[in-house]
Amino acid sequence: MTRWSVRAHDTGFGYVSAYGAPLVDLLDPRPGERVVDLGCGIGVLSAEITARGAHVLGIDGSAAMIEKALAQYPGIDFIVGDGSDFTVAQPYDAVFSNAALHWMGREPDAVIASVREALAPGGRFVAEMGGAGNCAALTAAMSTAWREHGLPEPDLPWYFPTPAEYAARLERGGFVVRLLEYFDRPTPMDECPDGAAGWVRMFAGSLLRTVPTGMVEPLLRRVNELAAPALRRETGWMADYVRLRFAAVRR
Ligand SMILES: C[S@@+](CC[C@H](N)C(=O)[O-])C[C@H]1O[C@@H](n2cnc3c(N)ncnc32)[C@H](O)[C@@H]1O
């Protein structure tokens, strides 16, 4: 289900949560509200929402993430669960999700259905995820490098929908879409000194497991060569992120 490693997330990509702070503002949690943080990772944003007075249940598919979250934030509830089939005992006021729904793309309608079930009527679904075109230069470099090395097309694990597609899914799934933004967010790859190669190791490490050991380094060198013209600036590497951010309300 999930391909995340706690170590990589913890040491390398703290910025994932840092970029999520405006999303907490969009959620605008009120004291006493009950909020699910879906795909909560190690719980950094769950803690931010809790600090605003809401009661948070963090759910993540990775037991290692949840273990870390529980250790770090003992006052918050965290459980292991899959976004496509989690259930809660009592309805929640809101489901929040940062940078996680694109990892749950094999069954987007099942995720939306689970979120709906978890919400009281009028409950909010506020999320940000990768949108269509997200990491296009990075993934194109991967495809070319894989092909040049005689490897099958990499089976990329992400789901990056267009705004129209995701809005239609939300509406079919019983939500009214109140806000939907689709924007470029070039993101400094500060934590990836070796650029696109480091990004692939961090975010698509599972794909490297099927690559013969001796081929990994030349393959990643080639990814860097191919991605550099689009993504390497004088100041360092920039990831070509495109985000989809929405706020929807359960009918
Ligand atoms: C980029 S991290 C984001 C973590 C956190 N929301 C943040 O902003 O720091 C994506 C998270 O989604 C989780 N995830 C991926 N697939 C999932 C699934 N099917 N169900 C629940 N969580 C999943 C991963 O384990 C990972 O912790």
Characterization of the model:
This protein has 251 residues and is α/β, with parallel strands linked by helices. It has a domain at 6-134 and 157-189 and 240-250: Rossmann fold. It has helices at 6-12, 15-18, 21-27, 44-51, 63-72, 108-118, 136-148, 163-172, 195-203, 205-208, 213-231, and strands at 34-38, 55-60, 77-80, 92-98, 119-130, 175-184, 187-188, 232-233, 236-239, 242-250. The strands form two sheets. The chain has a seven-stranded mixed β-sheet, with helices on both faces. A three-stranded antiparallel β-sheet has the order 7-9-8. It is globular. Residues 7-13 have low confidence and may be disordered.
Secondary-structure class: alpha/beta
Q: What is the name of the CATH architecture of the domain at 6-134 and 157-189 and 240-250?
A: 3-Layer(aba) Sandwich
CATH-wise, what's the superfamily of the domain at 6-134 and 157-189 and 240-250?
Vaccinia Virus protein VP39
Named once each, the bound ligands are:
S-adenosylmethionine
Helix fraction bin: 40-55%
Strand arrangement across the biggest beta sheet: 3-2-1-4-5-10-6
Overall geometry comes to globular
Given the structure, what is the number of helices? Answer: 11
Summarize this structure as a short list of keywords or feature phrases.
single chain; 251 residues; Rossmann fold; three-stranded antiparallel β-sheet; 11 helices; globular; binds S-adenosylmethionine; transferase; methyltransferase; methyltransferase activity
